[in-house]
Amino acid sequence: MSEKRWFWATLALSSVTVLLLVFAGWELVENRYFRDADYVTLHYLYLTRGVASSLLLAFWAAWFVWRQRLESEENLRRSQERYRGLLEAIPGAVVLFDRTFCVLEWNASAERLYGYGREEVLGKPLVTVPPSKQRELEDFLARVDGGETVLDVETLRSARDGEAFAVQLSLLPYQEPGGCHYFLEVTSDIRHVVQLRERMLQIEKLTSMGKMAAGTAHHLNSPLAALLLRVQMMRERPAHDPGEELAKIEQGLVFCQHFVSQLLEFTRASPAQRRGNDLGTLLESVASFFLPVIHSRGATLRVDAAPARGLMVVADRNQLETVLLILLSNALDAVDKGGHIQLVCARVATDKVEVRVEDNGVGISAANLTRVFEPFFTTKDPGKGTGLGLAIARNVVLDHGGTIAIESEPGHGAVVRIEFPLAKAGSESEAA
Question: Can you give the pLDDT at residue 3?
């Protein structure tokens, strides 16, 4: 608005200046050469001066406006080139679309990421959203319309070949001066991040399983020793009916086989897949596997999974097992012999459930408490911790829509609280 006012003010002042110069010059000529002219001659002189002044003023205004227009067009062209250059230089894939998902802008990074040329998609419906993520995108649009921000969300997008891959998405509102409302989607390929995260999850899980090796050996040693004793007794009493002894031996072998098969299944890397899981069953399963190593260290574990039994959470089971193993392993490292660890849960809202891991160990100082989720930060002795456990646990929990927090004081143990959203009706089938 200020530029328009400046333009019209400049034009008006320059026009007045031109008129003043024309009239002043004309007066000088009239006084010099037409001082004694008659009335008719003076009349024509006045008419000529008026016409000449009008023509000169019109030409001046037209030239001034034409020059200003050329300057504005040049500025607009440079602005468009600058805008286009910035858009193409953005490393993320930028897609601008309206409420009907009609594509209005598409940068070079989007061409490279999705495989569609700009001219192929402009003015056409957005084709990069998999059918399973269509409802999610509509929810994102509703959140943006409501004034919320959608930043750095992990989701899926489809390329030209139909492959769905992981991307990090940010969705922002965009409004033109005319009042038209659009949506700006910025995505970046995070397939390598997801692969690295899955590898780190498996490494952390195997690290926890290594700590469980002694407890596992202890857990299997008792039934195996009993089996060996029964075999020796049968050998010493060959005439005795072996039916009852064989049944007990078979029962012990079945127990060992079942335990080993569960252990192998527990450590096997499975493809990431989110589906409905009974949280209570999952907690009991993890606790049963970790219980032997806790006993081998002279500690005790109390598990209260009853409040979570029957509560379904949409999650990747392998990732949640890893999170719980990390927390239990950290708690075991914090307690001394005779220490106590608790794994309890409670429904804190109609749509949320809380899982707590408590211990009466050494606790965490206030300075360290603010850094426990930083990658590679650890308070353990060298060689006894990677510093990645809690960082991985936090990423997994946040990725599943939950929250994680730690409360602790030196000498008073620690409490880790995790909240997970409960599965809504139909969520399990959608996730699967």
Answer: 65
Cα separation, 219 vs 174, in Å, equals 61
Separation CA 283–CA 62 (nearest Å): 82
CATH class, domain 90-189, is alpha beta
CATH topology of domain 194-431: Heat Shock Protein 90 (3.30.565)
Answer positive or negative: Cα dihedral of 394, 397, 403, 406. negative
Per-chain mean pLDDT for the chain: 78
Both tokens of 194, joined, read: 């997801």
CA atoms of 226 and 248, how far apart (whole Å): 10
Contact 247, 227 (CB under 8 A): no
Dihedral, 53, 59, 60, 63 alpha carbons, nearest 10: 180
Average pLDDT estimate for 163-186: 86
Q: Decide whether 90-189 matches 194-431 in CATH topology.
A: no
Q: Which of 183, 164, 165 is nearest to 173 (CA)?
A: 183
In DSSP notation, 279-333 reads HHHHHHHHHHHHHHHHHHTT-EEEEE-GGGTT-EEEEEHHHHHHHHHHHHHHHHH
Name the residue ranges covered by the structural domains of the chain: 2-88, 90-189, 194-431
Query: How far is Cα 94 from Cα 170, in angstroms, rounded to an integer?
Result: 10
With 0-12 / 13-18 / 19 or more C-beta atoms within 10 angstroms meaning exposed / middle / buried, residue 80 is exposed
- Alpha-carbon gap, residue 240 to 332, rounded angstroms: 47
Q: Which amino acid is at 379?
A: T
Per residue in 302-353, pLDDT (tens digit) is 998 888 888 899 888 878 887 888 888 888 888 988 899 999 998 888 889 9
